[in-house]
Structure formats: structure tokens, C-alpha cells
Amino acid sequence: MKNRSKGKISPQCIFILCFCSFALGMLLSKRIWAPPESEGRITFPRRYNQEKKLSSVSDDCETKKIQEHDMLGEFNKANEAIRSLDSSIAKIRFELPSTKAFLGTRKMEDLPTMITTDSARTGIMIRKPFMVIGINTAFSGRRRRDSIRETWMPQGEKLLQLEQEKGIIVRFMIGHSATSNSILDRAVDLEDAQHKDILRLDHIEGYHELSAKTKAFFYTAVAQWDAEFYVKVDDDVHVNLGTLAATLAKQRLKSRAYIGCMKSGPVLHRKNVKYHEPEFWKFGEAGNMYFRHATGQIYAISRDLAKYIANNRPILHKYANEDVSLGAWLIGLEVEHIDERSMCCGTPPECEWKAQAGNVCVASFEWTCSGICRSVERIKLVHAKCGESPATLWGALL
């Protein structure tokens, strides 16, 4: 009996053992299954996952709000930039009139010279064309052409130099005969091969087709040269090229200038008279006068007007007289008619007196002959008495 009592465990030991087991279990349970804490409170795993998802969605919303705020800021910046640009443009527009007024008061020699490069042909700096002069001539006018070449029109290297340095282009203009490749056409081709100063037009030659020839000239010249002025002159008129260039340069700020000796006169309704107008009835009652227009011996028009004629040539009506036709094409437009009397001086002694007084004429001819009478024989005399010095042409500031 004594041995059995010694093998029993006391209640106190059992209590201590149980307490230690419980404490050990709590300790191990806390390390393995410790629930996460969120903002100081204990959450269980399932609830923790739900709150994590909600937190992620909330973060995405906050990010989108920040991005939208940034985009709104960028939009406001762009809007401010546009307003600033509009303000700058308005300021520039306000200042433009004063700039134009300033240019209007400048001397022509102070204006910048426009230069272009023709590297394909010469490799040197060449002036942009200032004016293109078309000398109206016919198949029968070989002697007249030669007389002009011997007087006021440069030849060979001088003609090329005039184009390159001064932007002045001078050409005899002539169309074709009614017969293709006729002896007349071949003769002109040979002449051009020799002198290189003829402009062939897509036009059938004929005295009563001068209005059509004028349209063909402007069309061809505008297509080939982008000049400031285009000049038409007859082959029995004496011209001082330097004085002509200086006269036109004074009008270069006018975009639609029609320059020449302005005239008027009765509409000739009777048949069998020179300059008869078959459509006289369009000008009103018999005895009415033509509207003011430049005489046909020589006149000049600015680039915009030449382009207008070139672009609208199919619908521009042709009257019997070429100068009347040109005046009719321009009279309905916003054109400045400039009456330049130095473009219609008489032959010596008139042009000689003016030259001696320092007022060299642009052009000289005789009204009785609508040109220089017997020009082949007399143009050399006119050139000797009324011609400008070479320095006037080569020293012209264009």
C-alpha cells in the first residue's frame, strides 16, 4: 500500500503541468496564427484580404484623380499659351499699317534687291527679273529689228549681262505663219539662232490680230519670267532702257499699275478708214469717245495685271485696236492708270531739247506715223540726239 501511494502525482503538480501546457500552446498559437494588424486593430485573414482589395481600389481612384488634375493643369497651360499667341498676332496686325507707311516713304534705291541663283546654267548670282520687254515685230520687220539692235538694244554678251545684273529682259516677239514650217518661220529661227533675242508666240501673225498677239505675249512672258513689270513696245519706237527702268521702279510698290501715255479719241465708226472699229455701237452713239487708255506704241503693266490677262485670256474680248482692247480689259478692275508723258516724246528736236535739259525721255516716236517715220533710216539719228548715256542703264539702282 505504501508503494502505491508513492507512485501517485500530486494535484499541485498536475495543475502546474496543465498551466505550463496551456501557456506553451498560447505562445505557439500566437506566433503561427498571429492575425495582421490594420491601423492598430486586429483583423482576421478573410477580412484582411477584403480590406486589402478595397484599399487597392481606393489607391487607384486617388491616382486617377491626380492624373485628371494634372491633365486639367496642362489644358489650362495650353489655353493660356493660345491666348498669348492670339494677343501677339493682334499686336503684329496692329503694327503692320505703320510698317507699310514706313516702306512707302523709303527711297526705291533703299529697297532690298531680290537675287536668285541660276547654278544650272552659269553658277553665278543672277537678278530676279525686274521687267520683260516685248518688242512687237513681224516677218517683214528684219531691217527694223537690225536697226534696234544697232541702237538702243544690247546684243550678245551685253544682252545676257543686262539680264543677269539688272534683271532687264528684252526680246522681239513674233508668232508663226499660217503655214507650218514655212520659209518665213525658218528665217526667224535662223535669226534667233544668231542673236538669241526672239520670243516665239503661239499665235498666227496678222495685222488685224494684234489684240490676240498681245494676250499671247503676256501669257508666254508670265509663264517664262516672274518679273515685276511687263512692257510692250513697237519696233519703230526709240527707247532708253535705263530711263524706262528708273521710271517703272518708282511704281514698284503699286501692285496693279497701268503705265503709259494715256489718251482718248473718237470711236471711228466709218468703214474704210484707218483704225475703224466694227463694234463702234458698243461705245454708245456716233461721235462718242473711247475711254482713257495708254497709247499702243509703248506701255507697261505690273505683274498682277499681266497674270490676270494670262489667266483670263480665253474670255477677254478683242476689239479692232490693240490699245483699246488692253484698256477695256483693265477698265473694270481696281487699277491705277499712270499717265507718264515721258513715254511719248517726239523725235528731235523735242526729245533732244529735253535730254539737254536733263529730262531724258523714256521713248520717242512721231504721232503722224504711230512710230518713227522711216525708222530704219532715222532711228540712228534719234538715238544719237536723244539716247541716254551707258552709265544711266548700267548704273541704274533697281
UniProtKB/TrEMBL annotation:
UniProt pathway annotation: Protein modification; protein glycosylation
Stretch forming the signal peptide: none
Source organism superkingdom: Eukaryota
Membrane topology: Single-pass type II membrane protein
UniProt keyword annotations, A-Z: Glycosyltransferase, Golgi apparatus, Manganese, Membrane, Signal-anchor, Transferase, Transmembrane, Transmembrane helix
Cofactor(s) this protein requires: Mn(2+)
InterPro entries: DUF4094, Glyco_trans_31
Compartment list: Golgi apparatus membrane
The name this protein goes by in its record: Hexosyltransferase
UniProt source species: Anisodus tanguticus
